[in-house]
């Protein structure tokens, strides 16, 4: 039997509808500021997509497109201004940055309450302490996708292939907070197949096309394909593939497609995080209780 395909767009739409409803209950519509440095084509396209989606769901958004030669001091000065501006609820600095700017210095400079990417060390620490405030978008989007499809996380064996700060590590924390038994595999893992076959929930986030093959998957497992790899066919046409081989659909119980699986969840979660950031700031200013977010794992 073929796996149930978990398409991202309808789930992303549900997450966005929830975020828009919460935004409408705030005194002012949340405002997301995106900062891009240079003209890397992928960054230009990602930023355009994020800003367009923010507009579609009714969030205010501003894009600062800075020249490639921007110095670290200039970028930090802009972040300082945005941190102090009460009208700005979320700040996202699109990565990667040009070589003259230290990524860590920039991520540390963003006010943790406006850190909609969830990369500030304070937010990373809170996540691992089981008290997540703002969590990285791709992992949080995956948790929403699993919850939406009723995938049992508590007690499940979860294996993540990939240990990046962007995906693997924060996802491990979220799954752990949601009571899964978590294993993180990576490029130095021995006998990867033996590890992945243990998984009730298998997440592939390695950036290797077709890395996960059918014999590496437990029959009936839920397989989440995070990979986005551009490959060129023998006809010379470029297209996107994931880290999971298409034949895994014959073994898995549920499977996310690439494209159209986790990708749309990431952008939706960014906007949900912007609303969450605005809620946090409003709660601090007016001393009100925070609304629940519904994110799995928050009360671990
Ligand atoms: P990364 O390069 O920072 O990390 C890759 C990780 O995979 C590393 O920890 C490495 O140890 C591990 N790895 C690499 N080769 C491996 C192998 N052969 N066996 C086992 N482990 C291996 O990448 P990243 O930023 O975490 O992104 C991973 C993939 O997810 C990329 O394809 C990226 O484009 C994609 N991605 C997708 C989204 C989305 O929204 N869908 C978001 C972020 C990243």
UniProtKB/TrEMBL annotation:
<dbReference type="Pfam" id="PF02882">
    <property type="entry name" value="THF_DHG_CYH_C"/>
</dbReference>
<dbReference type="InterPro" id="IPR020867">
    <property type="entry name" value="THF_DH/CycHdrlase_CS"/>
</dbReference>
<dbReference type="InterPro" id="IPR046346">
    <property type="entry name" value="Aminoacid_DH-like_N_sf"/>
</dbReference>
<dbReference type="Pfam" id="PF00763">
    <property type="entry name" value="THF_DHG_CYH"/>
</dbReference>
<feature type="domain" description="Tetrahydrofolate dehydrogenase/cyclohydrolase NAD(P)-binding">
    <location>
        <begin position="136"/>
        <end position="281"/>
    </location>
</feature>
<keyword id="KW-0554">One-carbon metabolism</keyword>
<keyword id="KW-0560">Oxidoreductase</keyword>
<protein>
    <recommendedName>
        <fullName>Bifunctional protein FolD</fullName>
        <ecNumber>1.5.1.5</ecNumber>
        <ecNumber>3.5.4.9</ecNumber>
    </recommendedName>
</protein>
<feature type="domain" description="Tetrahydrofolate dehydrogenase/cyclohydrolase catalytic">
    <location>
        <begin position="7"/>
        <end position="117"/>
    </location>
</feature>
<feature type="binding site">
    <location>
        <position position="228"/>
    </location>
    <ligand>
        <name>NADP(+)</name>
    </ligand>
</feature>
<keyword id="KW-0028">Amino-acid biosynthesis</keyword>
<keyword id="KW-0521">NADP</keyword>
<keyword id="KW-0368">Histidine biosynthesis</keyword>
<keyword id="KW-0378">Hydrolase</keyword>
<dbReference type="InterPro" id="IPR020630">
    <property type="entry name" value="THF_DH/CycHdrlase_cat_dom"/>
</dbReference>
<dbReference type="InterPro" id="IPR000672">
    <property type="entry name" value="THF_DH/CycHdrlase"/>
</dbReference>
<comment type="function">
    <text>Catalyzes the oxidation of 5,10-methylenetetrahydrofolate to 5,10-methenyltetrahydrofolate and then the hydrolysis of 5,10-methenyltetrahydrofolate to 10-formyltetrahydrofolate.</text>
</comment>
<keyword id="KW-0511">Multifunctional enzyme</keyword>
<feature type="binding site">
    <location>
        <begin position="162"/>
        <end position="164"/>
    </location>
    <ligand>
        <name>NADP(+)</name>
    </ligand>
</feature>
<keyword id="KW-0658">Purine biosynthesis</keyword>
<keyword id="KW-0486">Methionine biosynthesis</keyword>
<comment type="subunit">
    <text>Homodimer.</text>
</comment>
<comment type="similarity">
    <text>Belongs to the tetrahydrofolate dehydrogenase/cyclohydrolase family.</text>
</comment>
<dbReference type="InterPro" id="IPR020631">
    <property type="entry name" value="THF_DH/CycHdrlase_NAD-bd_dom"/>
</dbReference>
<dbReference type="InterPro" id="IPR036291">
    <property type="entry name" value="NAD(P)-bd_dom_sf"/>
</dbReference>
<comment type="pathway">
    <text>One-carbon metabolism; tetrahydrofolate interconversion.</text>
</comment>
């Amino acid at each position: 039997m073929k796996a149930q395909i978990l398409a991202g767009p309808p789930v992303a739409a549900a997450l966005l509808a929830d975020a828009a409803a919460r935004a409408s209950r705030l005194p002012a519509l949340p405002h997301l500021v995106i900062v891009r440095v240079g003209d890397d084509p992928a960054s230009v396209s990602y930023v355009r997509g994020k800003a367009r989606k923010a507009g579609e769901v009714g969030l205010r958004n501003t894009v600062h497109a800075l020249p490639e030669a921007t110095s670290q001091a200039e970028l930090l000065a802009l972040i300082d201004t945005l941190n102090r501006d009460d009208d700005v609820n979320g700040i996202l600095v699109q990565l990667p940055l040009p070589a003259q700017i230290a990524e860590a210095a920039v991520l540390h400079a963003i006010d943790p309450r406006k850190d909609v990417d969830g990369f500030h060390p304070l937010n990373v620490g809170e996540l691992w302490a089981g008290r997540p405030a703002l969590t990285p978008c791709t992992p949080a989007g995956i948790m929403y996708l699993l919850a939406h499809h009723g995938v049992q996380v508590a007690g499940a064996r979860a294996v993540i292939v990939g240990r990046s700060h962007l995906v693997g590590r924060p996802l491990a924390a979220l799954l752990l907070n949601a009571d899964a038994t978590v294993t993180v595999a990576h490029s130095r893992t021995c006998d990867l197949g033996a590890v992945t076959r243990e998984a009730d929930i298998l997440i592939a986030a390695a950036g290797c096309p077709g890395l996960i093959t059918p014999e590496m998957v437990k029959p009936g497992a839920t397989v989440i394909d995070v990979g986005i790899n551009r490959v060129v066919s023998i006809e010379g046409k470029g297209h996107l593939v994931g880290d999971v081989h298409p034949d895994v659909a014959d073994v898995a119980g549920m499977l996310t497609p690439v494209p159209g699986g986790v990708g749309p969840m990431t952008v939706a979660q960014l906007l949900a995080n912007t609303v969450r950031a605005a809620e946090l700031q409003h709660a601090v200013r007016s001393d009100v209780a925070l609304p629940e977010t519904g994110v799995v794992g928050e009360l671990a």
